[in-house]
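WP5 quarterly update. Target: DUF4136 domain-containing protein. Source organism: Colwellia demingiae. Length: 192 aa.
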Amino acid sequence: MNPIKLLVITSLIVFTAGCATNSAKVNFDKNTEIETINYKTFAWLTNTKIMAAPVDINPVMKERVDKSIEQAFIAKGYQLVDNAENADFAISYTVGSRDKIKVNSYPATYNSGFGWGRGYYGGRGYYGTMSMGTETSVRQYTEGKLAIDVYDVKNHQPAWHGWATKRLSSEDKETPSATLNEIVIKVVNQFQ
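Structure tokens (predicted):
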């Protein structure tokens, strides 16, 4: 197989695989001065549960997020208590989304023509032409973000901050609960 064709096919396969894996990017930051290994109980930091609600938050979705976060911490073996003062740690979260634009610029299809015979200036031998341009694509998408914060009740200090960002697809918007639960579990699993 021609090396150029092989390179193009390989590039298309890698590009397609990269598009297919639209998973959440998860990360965290831990306060190293606070020991969290002995935590057993948790509570919500405030009655509203969310730290700063966006103006356009869907109240039904907020309830789903609240429940999902509670269930994820309970699944890790922590016990939910009503009063934050009686808990080992308190939790809160923030959510949001923003419209983003991604611009890609890459070489256009490689066009060339080579041959033998009379060249441009009338000489004999090898001659050829080659042209190459660029193609640019612009994509608009929505990126969602969920951040969960853990505060040490005794020290009144932040102990841990975990977050996830994900490009929201139409499938995510059609089945938000499944996507939400998956992301919450991934974030909470980073907490130790």
